[in-house]
Amino acid sequence: MKAWGLAATLGFAVLAFGLGRALAAAVLLALKSAGVQGVDNDGTAVAVLILIAIPVQMITLVLAARMTSADVLDYFALRVPRWRDASLAIAVLAAVIVLGDALTAALGRDLVPASELDLYRSAQQDGTLFLLLLALIVVGPVGEEVLFRGFLFRGFIQEPRDSLPGIVLIALIWSVLHIQYDWFDASLVFALGVIFGYARLYSGSTLLAVVLHMLVNFESLVETAFALGWI
Known about the structure:
By secondary structure, this protein is mainly alpha-helical. The longest helix has 28 residues, at 129-156. It has one domain (6-227). The chain has helices at residues 6-31, 43-66, 72-75, 83-106, 114-126, 129-156, 163-176, 183-203, 206-227. It has 9 helices and no strands. The protein is 76% helix and 0% strand. Helix 1 runs antiparallel to helix 2 (43-66).
């Protein structure tokens, strides 16, 4: 399959990410008069950012993929994974989540960062909790995995020898973009990115990475619900 090289892939990815964020930032600026604050602690702002930025990002990436004359679904590896691959990946993910939570507790850290609790509280107060859940559990994982384990993966990993450095580099970029986290939480994000990358490699399916990402975010939601006393 014809695919963009590393430089072009990175360029289109930056363009897609930037266009999505720019449009979302413009909308958020317009909404400031309605009381929407910055994305650091405002659940409504985070929901708006994701729900606007991700569609723009994905449209840009689809257009970039179509320029190669390749089938778009194949370019992004949007195929249903084998049951065996999915079961193994989910089992590994569950073990890593348990290990990560145990390490977090052993270091005396909160399982749910205070900033995340603020997001859910503010969205609940604004009546936008459903939009935040939709953004974090569905739209966000789809958009991020199509970008990182779909588009970037296709451009960065074109030969077997590219697998390890490509997966690590993509996971590193992904973790660095989670600027709301400190070094410890960013390290956990990096580890998850490596798992998602290898799941994509061995299954040949970006959809599996999407499912894994959704499961991680849903598990985080459950922990947040307990911390807030919703359960």
